[in-house]
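Here is a tokenized protein:
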Amino acid sequence: MKVGIYRVRKIRKKLGINCKQTKKFKVTTDSKHNLPVANNLLNQKFETTAPNRVWVSDITYIPTNEGWLYLAGHKDIFTGKVVGYAMGSRSLFKAVVTKRPESCLITV
């Protein structure tokens, strides 16, 4: 018997049945270390007056059959556009080569 997701949702609601979803959790941050920590130059004020002055960066881990794939991306605060991304450790280098920012660039 074929039924759609809306019918299943309606029947679940009527019977008081909820789905239980589990998500794998991987600890990726070690806050208890003796390594130097960079100063907070922006102080949570994510504003700038020109492009290529402040970039924000993030990295995510993607599980694959061969292990973890690391994806890093960099976004310009002024334009809101992604200025560089790569799978691996070369994304910031690629973004700098492509955009050629001034020496006053802050990456967060």
Observations:
- The chain has a mean pLDDT of 84.
- The chain is about 20% helix and 25% strand.
- Strands lie at 54-64, 67-76, 82-87, 106-107.
